[in-house]
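Sharing a chain and its predicted structure for anyone who wants a worked example. Both blocks are below, sequence first, tokens second.
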Amino acid sequence: MGKFITIIQGHPDAQARHFCHALADEYAKGCEDGGHEVRRIEVAQLDFPWLRTKEEFEKGVPSDSIKQAQDTIRWADHLVIIYPLWLGSMPALLKAFFEQVFRPGVASEYPAHGTMAKKLFTGKSARIVVTMGMPALVYRWFFLAHSLKSLERNILAFCGIRPTRATLIGQVEGMNEHQRAGWLDEMRGLGDRGT
């Protein structure tokens, strides 16, 4: 039986296609090959305000595009989050998206003041795909993949999403066509397996 998979395309440029878009396309094709149902969220195409206060985060009314994204995430068994590394972390637009989507009552809830949060996305898994200019080994071992670990622990695991797996793709600007094709094949295989 196939999985329900949501691909969150986190590249903030809505005007051009980038390698992140090609990776998402191949993963989606793999999902179809493997008999999985797939839906996509293109963060750069959504219209939503940035949260600026705790009150907005806790009690504000999300925009329609955020409500639809929340429903698409709730529907999924498995999330695939794809983004480029910018200034050592995810692009600000993607972080703003997560702040909007993972609100109290959606991703977690606090039964009483001072108690541990209830994780509302328990049972979901995720794959995080990060492209970068530096070699992936440098990011993982010298910089200790700090922003990736923050996403895994502070956002996804906090809401119950685990296990998470990561695919780090380094030196994107210097890749030749053969190398790019290899990564696209890798994404299609991951989509076929639903991992």
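Comments welcome. The domain at 4-193 is CATH 3.40.50.360 (Rossmann fold).
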